[in-house]
Amino acid sequence: MKLTQARLMIAVAMSGLVMVASLTTAGFNNGGGNRVGGVSIDPAGIVRTATVQENQELVNLLRAEVTAPQGDLNSAADRRLVSLGGLQKAIEKARQSGGRLPAEVRYMAGLTGIEYLYVDEKNNDIVIAGPAEPWTVSETGSIVGTKTGASILQLEDLVIALRNVENAREASISCSIESTPEGRKRFMALQRRMRLRPGQNPAVFESAMKEAIGPQVIKFTGVPTTSRYACTMVAADYQMKRLAMALVDSPVRELPSYLQMARNGSHTSNRNPRWWMACDYESLTRNEQGTVWKLTGQGIKTMTEQDVIAADGSTTSEASDKLAQKWADEMTEHFTELATEMPIFGDLQNLMDLTVISTLIVQEQLERNAGLDLAVLRDQDSLAPQAFDAPRKIAPECSFIKGRNGWIVTASGGVSVDAFQVVHDQKVDAELESNLVATTDSDAWWWNDAR
Fold it and tell me: Residue 26 — φ and ψ, nearest 5°?
């Protein structure tokens, strides 16, 4: 993926914000370590697969601290509406009491996605809406719905998305995992020396391959590298690569690894596949008055191209091969099932929704139009993200096949969401529903659409 072509990139999430009103998902002050989605980040910034024990420790801590939904929040809704003005008041109330934010605030009333945004001029408000479910802690420490297993939106991600819209405009929000030129050069030299005897297992070269490739480097722009947002980007990308290269078994039968697909193919030694997940909505439409927007579609597709490695280890990009494209298409087609089985991908979908909506609010000046100032969500002093160990490198992992013309050992990639392009491409739908279903309770900041 060419980072210069991606204006906003998103993809291992942990707990949240700690200050007067804390957004942390548990009151253990990050005692669970930097682990989520089956991924661990150590103090040196090395990313790796979490051990079973580490993962269970995190799950146990979260299950002890995350309170269950009560009342109507304990039921699913096809469309739940969340007032951003009311959400800010709920945050202020918690701050004044000196306590942590309640779970219903941290998990945004159980929303599992965003389908609508309403500008409520009458009540000086901006309201978002989408499906919602009661929440629980998944086996990998993600917060998911009890009905479908879909990932729950989190306030912390909205805060980071909203605060970094202008950074995305100027410098992009990006994450990529790349091997170094030196590592690629060493590996190319090693390939020229490797010879398999008849019947010999390629695994005999694994240690030498890892040493030659060396750690892969993680690069960010646009968001704090110590944020949950940044860690989510890394985790999703890391898990995608592990799925493609058969380093982890796919939980979706219809999505085999790329190595399985390519086992009998022809591979050139200086070409390796690259995959990344990109923003891909069917449409963003609005009514003629500019008071209602509708976001339609899955929101994510997997894209691919090939890295061509030069003698000095530098790379250029060219069109993908057919099998790499086929794997990308299969991942896109089965993304919903994959996100249910591996919630880190659902967390990534939610980041994309929140980033598109945040960009829409800023780009269309919806705060001014609504007469609402989202100062509480933007206030770094009162809602300051807790710092996690910044992801910096990934220890080399190898999964490989020997094709007719060369080896495939690893892959590069990233996560990309061009939210500005989504907002730019919006279209007017004169028939778009324009009625905001209001709550009858003036103190409520969320309510269900019973229609």
Answer: -150, 150
Measure the CA–CA gap between 153 and 139, rounded to whole angstroms. Answer: 17
Residue recorded with tokens 């408000």: 125
Residues 6+ apart with CB under 8 A from 382: 19, 20, 21, 95, 376
d(CA 378, CA 81): 21
Question: What is the per-residue burial (b if ≥16 Cβ within 10 Å, else e) of 368-394?
Answer: eebebebebbebeebbebbebbbbbbb
- Beta pairing class for 412-416 and 271-280: parallel
Which of 248, 188, 217, 205 is closest to 401 using CA atoms?
205
Residue 383 in tokens: 């809602």
241 closest CA partner among 295, 169, 193, 176: 176
> Between β-strands 125-132 and 77-83, what pairing exists: parallel, antiparallel or unpaired?
antiparallel
Tell me how far the alpha carbon of residue 181 is from its chain's centroid.
27
Q: pLDDT tens digits, residue range 401-416?
A: 655 545 555 666 788 8
The first and second tokens of residue 390, run together, are: 């910044």
Closest C-alpha among 356, 370, 303, 286 to residue 113: 356
Instruction: Say which residues have a Cβ less than 8 Å from residue 380's Cβ, sequence separation at least 6.
Output: 163
Q: To which residue do tokens 């001029």 refer?
A: 121
Which position has the token pair 């309770």? 441
**Rounded alpha-carbon distances, angstroms, from residue 426 to 145, 254, 282:** 30, 33, 10
Measured distance CA(49)–CA(203) in Å, rounded: 20
Which residue ranges of the chain lie beneath pLDDT 50?
A: 1-22, 24-32, 313, 405
d(CA 360, CA 117): 9
